[in-house]
Automatic annotation (TrEMBL):
Entries under Pfam families matching the protein: Aa_trans
Lineage, uppermost ranks: Eukaryota, Viridiplantae, Streptophyta, Embryophyta, Tracheophyta
Residue span(s) of domain Amino acid transporter transmembrane: 29-256
Protein name: Amino acid transporter transmembrane domain-containing protein
Transmembrane segment boundaries: 36-56, 62-83, 155-174, 180-201
Length: 257
């Protein structure tokens, strides 16, 4: 790898192959604003947005938007920090660990690796479980429609976990998978699609007279909608859901690279 970079740098110094290599000797980047935007939308906007309506309902029209704006500002601020850390002493940092190595160094790089990959493993497990639960919910819904609501319709999550994990293993073998910008574009469209579906269903419920929906400045009311302890628990859970929806994305460095 070092020899390749040295060779590429030599080509650049000699004025050759400038069209094929960046100023640091690596293959010239081919990303555009569209592909970068698609990658960022895919990385930042996830399924967490689906819980925002419930979170706002718990916190109310004062605390809910305030927490929403606070976490959006935190995401913007940390993303700006990552963007500013892309170069250090004239050298590009291509990964999050490269940034930590350039600015902190030492054992902090290992701690960063443990935290980052531990987070990725946890998120992967979480999505695998979420996918299996969602598929089971679809199967149970179809079963209830077919057999009636008194049917047992007991369905195991494990086969769906195995199927999803198998698909992930297969897709992870594709070389240069991170360069498939069309995949992020599809994912970005899907993110907007299921967000729009949730919004449309909410509007349809209000417009269709599906029951009187009450909202308040303080969210759910103690003694009417819930107990005091449940109010506290749901409020903290709502804050956690909003924080999850605005997840800190370490892959922004890779997108910028």
């Amino acid at each position: 790898m070092a020899n390749e970079l040295e060779k590429n740098s030599m080509y650049i110094e000699n004025g050759e192959a400038n069209k094929n290599f960046d100023d640091d000797g690596r293959q010239r980047r081919t990303g555009t604003v569209v592909t970068a935007s698609a990658h960022i939308i895919t990385a930042v906007i996830g399924s967490g947005v689906l819980s925002l309506a419930w979170a706002i309902a718990q916190l109310g029209w004062v605390a809910g938007p305030a927490v929403l704006m606070a976490f959006s500002f935190i995401t913007y601020l940390t993303s700006t920090f990552l963007a500013d850390s892309y170069r250090h002493d004239g050298r590009r940092n291509y990964t999050y660990m490269d940034v930590v190595r350039s600015h902190l160094g030492g054992y902090k790089v290992q701690l960063c690796g443990l935290a980052q990959y531990g987070n990725l493993v946890g998120v992967t497990i979480g999505y695998t479980i979420t996918v299996s639960i969602s598929m089971v919910a679809v199967k149970r819904s179809n079963c209830f429609h077919k057999e009636g609501h008194n049917a047992e319709c007991s369905i195991s999550n494990y086969p769906f976990m195995a199927i999803f994990a198998g698909i992930q293993l297969i897709l992870s073998q594709i070389p240069n998978f991170h360069e498939l910008s069309w995949l992020s574009i599809v994912a970005a469209v899907m993110s907007f699609a299921y967000s729009s579906i949730g919004l449309a269903l909410s509007i349809a419920k209000l417009a269709g007279g599906g029951g009187h929906v009450e909202t308040s400045l303080t969210g759910t009311r103690v003694g009417v909608d819930t107990s005091g302890s449940e109010k506290v628990w749901n409020s903290f859970q709502a804050i956690g859901d909003i924080a999850f929806a605005y997840a800190y994305s370490t892959v922004l460095i890779e997108i910028q690279a």
